[in-house]
């Protein structure tokens, strides 16, 4: 049987009436969940730590902010939206001691539950609403009267109402306007990690930068290389987003379409597929999670993460990109980074 997909008419926002929702974390996802749910009429508070740079931002945006422990104590539904690698410590220290039977613990990604970082007690519901977009898009789509597709998964159903309450949450977030696909914590975790590593972030950035480097090394103007291999990616992807690969190919020239068919398989080869399978198996058997959690731990000191971030920031496309983007009259890249 194929998985169900839920829309507005399948969700009852009324189920959240009288329930307090604590959004723990106010970053990319946290701000979008807190503001969208508040504007959908829900009773939302935010949980952070003393000294968090997000605290003043959440208050300035009209939200009541408490420590994570206090917010968890007050809430019926606790959505954990802090960094995956920090969730286990936060849970032990601030959430677990304040959980009551019948509460719902929620996540936007299954990492901490699937990899056994958090083991909730049997008397609480454990659910996931995972938006398939960056938090800033979850917010802007909601504000535009649209929504972001989400995945819903139930790990524990202590109350017997977990799915209905999770779907009500998805409606408040705006996700049910676009569709909420039923899945499991395992599937969401594995597919999300695979997608972001092999295609969306790792794959696409490496492809764009390799294209940029090839043109620059051949002596072409770096600004020209940036337009061709980075800037135009959005315009092509927008067409795919709107009308699929066929729609995109309708819009490009025959020359481009021909080159697309003959050259694509020379770039993404059987070797690339083999590498993708290895990436997936490292995710499935927990090797990636182990490596990531070790580097991000106090002992690891984020040594690898920081070194890779530094190297990425130094790539020649970043300097040119900044210069090129500053010329766009609509440029808001700095705005996004500061939000
Ligand atoms: N980024 C995205 O668009 C997506 C993220 N997700 C998932 O959503 C979750 C949140 O990720 P994301 O939004 O990227 O996170 P961010 O890094 O953007 O934000 C993290 C937030 O948590 C706060 N925080 C950090 N440590 C603590 C703590 N100990 N107690 C309370 N608050 C804390 C941070 O405050 P401060 O900055 O002040 O330290 C910040 O407000 C993750 O599970 C992620 O996988 C899922 C889909 C997409
Ligand atoms: C693609 C990256 C993502 O999975 C997302 C925005 O959905 C993330 O973890 O940020
Ligand atoms: Mg994702
Ligand atoms: Mg992700």
UniProtKB/TrEMBL annotation:
Give the residues annotated as coiled coil: none
Q: Where does Mg(2+) 2 bind?
A: 192, 228, 232
**Which cofactor names does the annotation list?**
Mg(2+)
Q: Which reaction does it catalyse?
A: (2R)-2,3-dihydroxy-3-methylbutanoate + NADP(+) = (2S)-2-acetolactate + NADPH + H(+); (2R,3R)-2,3-dihydroxy-3-methylpentanoate + NADP(+) = (S)-2-ethyl-2-hydroxy-3-oxobutanoate + NADPH + H(+)
Q: Which residues form the KARI N-terminal Rossmann domain?
A: 3-183
Task: Identify the residues that the record assigns to the KARI C-terminal knotted domain, covering every copy.
Answer: 184-331
| GO molecular function ontology, one term from the record | isomerase activity
Q: Which residues form the active site?
A: 109
EC number of this enzyme: 1.1.1.86
Cite the binding residues for Mg(2+) 1.
Answer: 192, 196
GO biological process terms, alphabetically, are: isoleucine biosynthetic process; L-valine biosynthetic process
> Pfam families attached here?
KARI_C, KARI_N
Q: Does the keyword Metal-binding apply?
A: yes
Which PROSITE patterns would you find in this protein's record?
A: KARI_C, KARI_N
Identify the domain of life.
Bacteria
Q: What are the binding positions for substrate in this chain?
A: 253
Q: How is the cofactor bound?
A: Binds 2 magnesium ions per subunit.
Q: What is this protein called?
A: Ketol-acid reductoisomerase (NADP(+))
What is the protein's species of origin?
A: Suipraeoptans intestinalis
